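queue> holo job accepted (NAP)
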Amino acid sequence: MRIGILGSGLMGGKLGTIFARAGHEVVFSYARRQQKLKKLAGDARGKARAGTPREAAQDADALLLAVHWLRIDDVLHQAGDLAGKVIVSCSLPMNADDTDLVIGHASSGAEELAKKIPQAKVVCAFNTVPSEVLFGVYQARRKANRPSLVYCGDDARSKALAAALIRDAGFDPVDAGPLRIARYTEPFALLVAQLAYEGKGGPELAYRFERFK
Ligand SMILES: NC(=O)c1ccc[n+]([C@@H]2O[C@H](COP(=O)([O-])OP(=O)(O)OC[C@H]3O[C@@H](n4cnc5c(N)ncnc54)[C@H](OP(=O)(O)O)[C@@H]3O)[C@@H](O)[C@H]2O)c1
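queue> job finished
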């Protein structure tokens, strides 16, 4: 697939690298310095390059949205027309000092995002894991017990595409249902982040969200 990365920080930088190593064509965009995007693309060791958000969106089969909530409007504006595009969003609707969600219970960041870009197809995924675990999960992807990762969305084709990316990253995708389920998974993601960064167990606690068969 061709994957555009909108926001090449902790999440976008790592997931973009993983997608490139898994064989996808990746365009890294949206960082404060072009040099950083070029370095990410070089270090990814796959088919990866640096570009603008507009270039990342062009011809993309999927876009990973990985910016702070306060930067969403800016990056969407720079990306241009997103009609028909699949947007896999890991962005949480955090306040400026990252202490709390600014949307919750009656809606979610994912649902508000979908309202901003009604012609795009939004899938909420990857926001329940701290970036620290991503490379380790990818490296262990051939082991029998993969950690589960929940995702949600309203469009079946876009969800299948997101599930394929989740699998490529080394997780077992768990379909949590329609996009409105993000109002429950986003507070869960914040709890997970608090456990990971403030608790004693470290980031590895965070993705032990199991599916019982
Ligand atoms: N980090 C996690 O473990 C984690 C886990 C779950 C969900 N999330 C969510 O994922 C999203 C991304 O988080 P993150 O930790 O990856 O954030 P981050 O490391 O700060 O990455 C955000 C990216 O946006 C870029 N950026 C910020 N301001 C900019 C500007 N004015 N112009 C151009 N680029 C700009 C940053 O550039 P620079 O690279 O130059 O700083 C960076 O590449 C957030 O919504 C967060 O809530 C994060």
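queue> The mean pLDDT is 93.
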